[in-house]
């Protein structure tokens, strides 16, 4: 099976047909998913979506776009939220200089709270880094020296420097549908270079639909298109990518257990 390591199932985009979306994912061979938190106000809704489903888990965290609304976030708050059995990671969190919807000082302050929560819980840290490679690498280096944590660079579009910094610290890199875009040569190079035992796949749905669905709502059923392109650029079989990325997911998110 395939595992979608980053789905955004809450909110209005799937409000009318979520069950159909999940059924299509199962039919496409996507056997498990990680539902991502964008801000703490979404926590209850995401928990409700995941509840009772044997193959869905969730994260707790605040996207850098919303850091301005969580400037007083503490590691203790995140640690408490992460005690739930279905929470298997901290995040999505990070730094974004492309949009900078939140001031960079707020982004950095909130990101550091997430890192400390990951250090204290031992849970992986799902990282959003856009046009902030140098700043992100500096913080990862500094804080990993204080106490270890495992970073996941989600939907990675950055350069080799930050990628290598994360890998050096036991991290992982996730590739999205961007790998299918005509002009995404840098992302395809990332997909080639990431060690196979550190590679994950994601849709980041409802965003970033892979070709030929680009421009329409994305959904987990399209993950095989990502796997196919990654297999193509690496010169291996789709089955090899499927097996490796699924194994990697459950190694990284070790709290995630498929129930009978």
UniProtKB/TrEMBL annotation:
<dbReference type="InterPro" id="IPR032466">
    <property type="entry name" value="Metal_Hydrolase"/>
</dbReference>
<dbReference type="GO" id="GO:0046872">
    <property type="term" value="F:metal ion binding"/>
</dbReference>
<keyword id="KW-0378">Hydrolase</keyword>
<dbReference type="InterPro" id="IPR001130">
    <property type="entry name" value="TatD-like"/>
</dbReference>
<dbReference type="GO" id="GO:0016788">
    <property type="term" value="F:hydrolase activity, acting on ester bonds"/>
</dbReference>
<feature type="binding site">
    <location>
        <position position="6"/>
    </location>
    <ligand>
        <name>a divalent metal cation 1</name>
    </ligand>
</feature>
<dbReference type="InterPro" id="IPR015991">
    <property type="entry name" value="TatD/YcfH-like"/>
</dbReference>
<dbReference type="GO" id="GO:0004536">
    <property type="term" value="F:DNA nuclease activity"/>
</dbReference>
<dbReference type="GO" id="GO:0005829">
    <property type="term" value="C:cytosol"/>
</dbReference>
<feature type="binding site">
    <location>
        <position position="204"/>
    </location>
    <ligand>
        <name>a divalent metal cation 1</name>
    </ligand>
</feature>
<dbReference type="InterPro" id="IPR018228">
    <property type="entry name" value="DNase_TatD-rel_CS"/>
</dbReference>
<feature type="binding site">
    <location>
        <position position="154"/>
    </location>
    <ligand>
        <name>a divalent metal cation 2</name>
    </ligand>
</feature>
<dbReference type="Pfam" id="PF01026">
    <property type="entry name" value="TatD_DNase"/>
</dbReference>
<feature type="binding site">
    <location>
        <position position="92"/>
    </location>
    <ligand>
        <name>a divalent metal cation 1</name>
    </ligand>
</feature>
<protein>
    <submittedName>
        <fullName>TatD DNase family protein</fullName>
        <ecNumber>3.1.21.-</ecNumber>
    </submittedName>
</protein>
<keyword id="KW-0479">Metal-binding</keyword>
<comment type="similarity">
    <text>Belongs to the metallo-dependent hydrolases superfamily. TatD-type hydrolase family.</text>
</comment>
<feature type="binding site">
    <location>
        <position position="128"/>
    </location>
    <ligand>
        <name>a divalent metal cation 2</name>
    </ligand>
</feature>
